[in-house]
Amino acid sequence: MKSKILKAYNFKKVEDRIYRLWLRSGFFNPDKLPGKRKKTYTIMLPPPNITGRLHMGHALNATVNDILIRWKRLQGYKTLWLPGTDHAGISTQVRVEKELKKQGKTRFDLGKKLFIKGVWKWKKEYGGIILEQFKKLGSSLDWSRIRFTMDKKYSDAVKESFLNYYKKGLIYKKDRPINWCSRCKTSLSDLELDYKEEKGKLWYIKYPLMKGSRKVSRTSGFIIVATTRPETMLGDTAVAVNPTDKRYKNMVGKYALLPLVNKKIPIVSDRLIDPKFGTGAVKITPAHDLKDYNVGISHNLEIVQVIDEEGRITGNAPAVYQNLRVSEARERIVKDLEKLGLIKKIEEFSHQIPYCDRCKTRIEVLPSEQWFVKMDRLAKMAEKEVRSGRIKFHPKRFEKTYFDWLSNIKDWCISRQIWWGHKIPVKGVNDVLDTWFSSALWPFVALGWPKKTRDLETFYPTDVLSTARDIINLWVVRMIFSGMEFMKKRPFKDVFIHPIILTKQGKRMSKSLGTGIDPILLIDKYGADATRFGIVWQLTGVQDVRFNEDSIVMGKKFCNKIWNATRFVMFQISDSRFQISSKLQVSKSKLTENDKKILKALNKTIKSVDGYLTKFRFGKAAREVYNFFWHDFCDKYIEQSKSQIANSKSQTEKENTKKILSHILLSSLKILHPFLPFITEEIYQKLPLTNKKKCLMIEDWFYSR
């Protein structure tokens, strides 16, 4: 039999063809897997935004998910990796608005109905691009079950969940300060903000102290407050100090005169005040700061809104400041305070400024009537599932992030004042739901809830969620309490928090800054296998990976090594009617020391890979298979086999060596397949095997689970 394997491996001629083979086989679909597979293994793809293109974070997450799915599929599990996309309310609306801006139009020019129609058209044309890119990576997702968070069935499920919360009294409407984006014209949760450290100023302002008379003209000395936002003082309704601060003991209960407004405001004490900040005395503006709002509630303070939804000063302020933009008002107020001699000093001050994480507009806090979900009971459910060990985080240290947020959780503002999204199912309400409200339902709604579908019964709860640390609170927490609320079961067993891929210099990747790396370009240059292996190789346990393209180059060289080793084995068995069997049929008494060593190394590698993947230590597993194949098999045994074959005293001895060579090759293909699916499948298709399967992906693992 002559070898049918070409001299050099060319991934460009292999990968698309092999992926088509997999699609034709139907084996991505658990219902079409051969044999009786009683145990299930399920992963739900974190649905990427329809605005998205594959980036390194997606590539990393998809690779580790695919490794797990392919590994479990080989082990005989009924595996489901379910794909889908998220409608990404604000992100998508901003994207479509940018397209309109190129035409000199706004969404208001179109009107709501035409704008939404345009978004659906945009989604149809561009919303599925990222899923096609997942295919380039080799992702074995069940494309027959693809879901979208705005399709009809999903929308019905979102409505059902809202009504469930509402009937239980867990959803309420209230006018209170929220984060507001003046460009997107919507409320945002704390988790949707992007904080940037910026150099600013800390103004020390003199607030005249009032004497006993009610007339505001009679003052005696000053109380000095420190603030980074003098423009909000127009809405001050108190000055506050910490009750333990002895400096202000005699002032509590008295009054100060609010400069520029000429208004009498009380001096109160509250434990929320940090006595170490500034002078220890702070201005309280309940309408424009959430901590101030809580102080205001405690002391029954008036709420005066002085900044509107456009980011301008309202009619509640003195006329001279009305309709000014916030930045303009600040400049005017500081000048007026200086003229009155009411600024004691100004210091340079660096602090965190909140921006909309979608459009990068600076956020204002202002009062607005919004819909909220009560979090007390839901948070306790979410906490219990992790504390009990029924849900485990990997690495375990991220449980602290989870618990810290739950211990300080606020009621969830779920209403958004945009047009694209799930409409709040209350008559006369035009708001839509926060995107994360629908995303929180993903593990069970994507399987058919609220209907009792076969998929829901078979594949829920799922097994693993793999995601990044920056959405533990945005998404992971919410999926857990949603699963417990609606399914009475945890949504998954394990949460793998994968690393963040940074630039080589240790900075966040950014396409806009030109520091992002497009994984599709890496695939085009080196191949999907090399890209996958190179990414996984860098997962060494740290949470910030400084990406190095050298590892992708190494992955490509490894593919060439596998190909060349295969050519050697194929050449050795090409002069006979040799058939490779999945079971090694050779007498132990006939084994040489070299044979015993390589078989022992193989068994050790199998157990190590199983162990590392069970613990989500993907980098360790990659190194294990690399070292075994390159060093134990290629560098040692293949070289030793040459002399064993040449010096064999009988045809039986020669055949034994060939059997071990082919056995190690086939076994290696199985171990390597989750990491390097394309090249291993291509080689498998060319091997002369007894009882050959249709695809390597459904071969038998080495022992039953």
Task: Looking at this protein, list some descriptive labels.
single chain, 705 residues, alpha/beta, Rossmann fold, Isoleucyl-tRNA Synthetase, domain 2, four-stranded antiparallel sheet, four-stranded mixed sheet, 41% helix, elongated
Radius of gyration over C-alpha positions, nearest whole angstrom: 32 Å
Strand content bin: 15-25%
* N- to C-terminal distance: 36 Å
Helix content: 40-55%
* Overall CATH class of the largest domain: Alpha Beta
What is CATH's topology name of the largest domain?
Rossmann fold
CATH-scheme architecture of the largest domain:
3-Layer(aba) Sandwich
The coarse silhouette is elongated
Structural class: alpha/beta
Sheet with most strands: 4 strands, antiparallel
Summed up, the domain count is 3
> Which sequence of strands runs across the widest sheet?
6-5-14-16
CATH superfamily of the largest domain: HUPs
Query: Got a strand count?
Result: 22
Number of helices: 22
Low-confidence stretches: none
User: For the residues shown, what is the average pLDDT?
Assistant: 93
